[in-house]
């Protein structure tokens, strides 16, 4: 195993000590939380002005809306939010506005909408029928994207973090004192770059209120909603606070909202176990195909994988820069290979790519895995990217995270025991929220039942690497009225990639009709070596 790049104790000793003080005895804002009323506001905010649109791309219009930083003070400080609209392509048959949240938290909805023509066949890609009959509305949530994105680290700090070696055998990838020091530096940076009042306002209930301000500014009596991943927290929140403003709602790759707003440590453990299951599904498929079809590991891919990770940790592969600077050079170590594998194993359509990259690394060519490492989406575990800063800020505004370090140690031990490969990467991933400097004392804490809203369509993958299927079952039970649709197979998100799901989701969005509760959609048989083509709509 390679060692962490040395840092002297003087460089992080003070931060480590400060973190221990906070984790050992100070409040994280969990105790004494009070539930809000349905709107959480002592007085209604004035009606927003109609949006002023300007062209900002092919078939796209952009606007800015100002919303109260705190809805208990509607006349106080205001936050500008970025809004984008893709006009219905068949305006004569227009139904209304469809607002969507692509998840994260931290994914910019406006950027997602701008890239819509490039995303066909990927989760969340709207069908031509939906694009024809809805104005699709993207709102960057407060603290995300063009809506005053949260900043916690300097460019140099990000660069230092990206260059830090991790040990996949150590929970959290680093010794605990270093993890505590990193958490102290991160949270101190968050408080330095923006006000604590702003950080405390980033909760999902405020995002839902912001959506209703956008609805009012659009002149719509009701909205249609599609949410993916974290977007399935926003949707039920909106339906609970504003049930009579919902026309129809589709919730894809759902989060258990009771878990989301509860203790964050069991939540993170569920995510680690879900990722481990998808990796195990890749191993199982490789074994079943046999060495002639899946040559990695010659019939024992688990042993070959563990050996490869240990080998790369002991002696990382050197990677030369690609021609014309398309891909930076560097080295590929075991932690990077593990993280890349975690991401690619979570989507059965990328399994052939994963197999070829692992085979290449086994033969001494780390370039394919290194290139993939540079491009994979690494949420939900800590990584040195700008998205991680916004991702963390929203989580910490919502979560109940224990302040005591003992709880985090116990959770790390549990994660490693239940997810022996992925658990080490998930361990201690809630430390930032344990010492978050801006506790949200008035967030909504009641169950998100959506009582009074139309039935929601809840779509879940059988083997989802981020949101396990039992979360969808729990969401369906929590919502006052919901229908559960299951897609077989491995992957995060189903609408846009499965013809059966596409048909059901379009029927809900366009006509308000639902499949029978408990309907199951089949998917292609997974394979580790032959390329798979997403099902047609």
TrEMBL record:
- The superkingdom of the source organism is Bacteria
Q: Cite the GO molecular-function annotations of the record.
A: hydrolase activity
Query: Which keywords has UniProt assigned to this entry?
Result: Hydrolase, Signal
- Tell me the InterPro entries matching this sequence: AB_hydrolase_fold, Pept_S33_TAP-like_C, Serine_prot/Carboxylest_S33
| Annotated ranges, domain Peptidase S33 tripeptidyl aminopeptidase-like C-terminal | 422-521
Which family does the similarity line name? Answer: Belongs to the peptidase S33 family.
Protein name, as recorded: Alpha/beta hydrolase
